[in-house]
Amino acid sequence: MSEKNKILVIGCNGQIGTVLTNTLSKKYGRDNVIGSDIAKPTEPTNFIFEACSVLDKDLLLSIIKKYNITDVYLLAAYLSAKGENNISKAWSLNMDGLLNILNFAKDKLIQKIFWPSSIAVFGPTTPKVNVEQNTIMEPTTIYGVSKLAGESLCNYYYKKFGVDVRSLRYPGLIGWQSMPGGGTTDYAVDIFHEAIKNRKYTCFLSPDRTLPMMYMADAIKATIGIMTAPIEKIKIRTSYNISAFHFSPEELATKIELYFPEFKINYSPDKRDLLASSWPNSIDDQGARNDWGWSPNYDFNKMVDDIMLNLKKKYNQ
Ligand code: SER
Predict the structure, then answer these.
(1) How far is it, in rounded angstroms, from Cα 304 to Cα 252?
(2) Which residue in 75, 113, 281, 292 could disulfide with 11, CB within 3.0 to 4.6 Å?
(3) Is the pLDDT of residue 154 over 70?
(4) Where do the structural domains in the chain lie, given as residue ranges?
(5) Calpha distance 100→36 (Å, rounded)
(6) How many other β-carbons are positioned within 10 Å of the β-carbon of residue 106?
(7) What span, in angstroms and rounded, lies between the C-alpha atoms of 306 and 163?
(8) Distance between CA atoms of residues 131 and 171, nearest Å
């Protein structure tokens, strides 16, 4: 990134935004990173904050001009579970927000975009194991439908207007610094907090519901990795499969029991279990590995160890 590059992270208060904005600020300097969200962050930040909705095109444009923004990370979205209760709002936030940013790049107001897709682009007709980059994609959530349409939109803007938009299909993301909101894979974060605080957890997915997952540190590594890769290495302009490991709630509970033998898990699967049942168990990410050198640093065990270390400190245990 040259001295002139300025970053805008839209959705800086969210699960990924909280960690990404902080990491980018450490890497590029406070004055080069602007975070925006609809509400002010509750804690002091190491970046410049601007309150703005991604749907407010005029305000966004004024922020882009004020700071001479070059790179936008667009993280604001309705996730899978929340989206099912707010179909129109989910479509509008997920699609109109993306279209606004793509149009800024088309008009050369910004240079580069990161926009995340998700394993939710896959559906019940997709193979379950080691899902390849190009496969059957018939999503059954509005979130997945919007992500699949968004992937096509990104590819279209790249092909038609040369917009440098880069994307990853995130698996379920698990971190200790921030809480997720409205997703189906959220259980895998909640369970750690409940285990440490109360030694018990009621899981809203079935015990054997295996899903692809990744530690937040690796999601951030992949995100910055794809954004800093030389342009000629980015060969896929829909969205790249990325993968780290996969596990079921039962397998995660067994790991947690190694720390807290008295830990008790109950299962009360709800509507989210049905959403999760439409997604694959595991993902093949050869494309990202071959094209721009992606590889994760954390396996399942290393992630659990790191989360436990940090959360025990946080809760003074
Ligand atoms: N973590 C997301 C969700 O559960 C999937 O990308 O909605």
Answers:
(1) 9
(2) 75
(3) yes
(4) 7-117+137-171+216-241, 173-213+244-314
(5) 15
(6) 15
(7) 38
(8) 12
Residues with catalytic roles: 143
pLDDT at 58 over 60: yes
Give CATH for domain 173-213+244-314: 3.90.25.10
pLDDT at residue number 22: 97
**CATH code reported for the domain at 7-117+137-171+216-241:** 3.40.50.720
DSSP 112-163: EEE--EEGGG--TTS-SSSB-SS------SHHHHHHHHHHHHHHHHHHHH--
pLDDT for 34 equals 98
Return the SS3 of 31. helix
Question: Atom 3 of ligand 1 has which residue's CA nearest to it?
Answer: 183
Pocket test for ligand 1, best of 15, 118, 131 (most atoms within 8 A of CB): 118
| CB-neighbour burial class of residue 287 (10 A; exposed 0-12, middle 13-18, buried 19+) | middle
Regarding pTM above 0.90, the answer is yes
Taking a C-beta distance cutoff of 8 angstroms, is the pair 90, 98 a contact? no
Q: Are 195 and 205 in contact (CB under 8 A)?
A: no
Ligand 1 centroid distance, CA of 79 (Å)? 6
Region 133-153: mean pLDDT is: 98
Question: How is residue 279 annotated by DSSP?
Answer: S
Residue 1: pLDDT over 70: no
pLDDT tens, position by position, 105-138: 999 999 999 999 999 999 999 999 999 999 999 9
Ligand 1 in reach of 184 Cβ (< 6 A):
yes
